[in-house]
Every structure is written in structure tokens, then in C-alpha cells.
Design goal:
alpha+beta, 4 helices, 3 strands, 117 residues, GMP Synthetase, Chain A, domain 3, single chain, 3-stranded mixed sheet, 53% helix, flat
Length: 117
């Protein structure tokens, strides 16, 4: 598998910062949890597609509502992204729930339980 280039890493970082700002400060959808964060972004090298990994502090229902709110605001988010980042193409956004934090907490609890026994 090809290693990501420095240009692609810079684009990923810039898109991550801008998506975090847009989601936390500009979207007024009540379905979106205020404790929503963008954990990672992967933009394809041709700048056509972007997969944004979202983490939500709360229960599963809140996470699903946040995902629905982000998907409904996809056009607005993409327009703001195009306005604030000068890219040849503005990527199509796909939001994915990032379960790595919850998985890490669960594994940490299991390790603590084993160590206490």
C-alpha cells in the first residue's frame, strides 16, 4: 500500500481543523451533540472524497442523531469547506462514527478488572 504523501497529510490536517471549526461553531442543528469532535480525516489523493471520523460523548442514541444531523447538513458543511479552504476540488463528505475511543475505554476496564482479581 502506498504511503501517504506530505501534501496529502497537510490537506488532511487542514480539512480536519476546518471541519472541527464548522461543526462546533457554525452548525445550529439541535440534533448535533455539543460534545462532537472530529477525530480523523482521510482525503483521497484526487481530492474527490473525504471520510471524516466523528466521536460523540454520550449514548448511542445521541451518536445516531448527531450522525443524522451531520448528514443533513452535508451540503452546508461542504460549501463552508470550499469557501475556507482553497482546493482544486471540494471533496464529498462521508461521516463515520469512530468507535476507537469507546473500544479503548472498554479494553482498559477489562484490563483493570483482570488486574484487580
Amino acid at each position: 500500500m502506498k504511503k501517504t504523501s506530505h501534501k496529502n497529510e497537510r490537506i488532511n490536517g487542514e480539512v480536519l481543523r476546518e471541519l472541527s471549526r464548522i461543526i462546533s461553531m457554525e452548525i445550529k442543528d439541535p440534533r448535533i451533540n455539543p460534545m462532537t469532535s472530529v477525530t480523523s480525516v482521510i482525503v483521497t489523493p484526487d481530492l474527490k472524497y473525504c471520510k471524516a471520523f466523528i466521536s460523540v460523548l454520550g449514548d448511542e442514541e445521541s451518536a445516531q442523531e448527531t450522525l443524522a444531523g451531520l448528514n443533513s447538513a452535508n451540503g452546508y458543511i461542504r460549501r463552508e469547506l470550499a469557501r475556507n479552504i482553497n482546493l482544486r476540488n471540494t471533496p464529498e463528505l462521508t461521516f463515520v462514527m469512530d468507535q476507537s475511543i469507546a473500544y479503548g475505554i472498554e479494553m482498559s476496564k477489562k484490563i483493570d478488572d483482570i488486574m484487580n482479581q
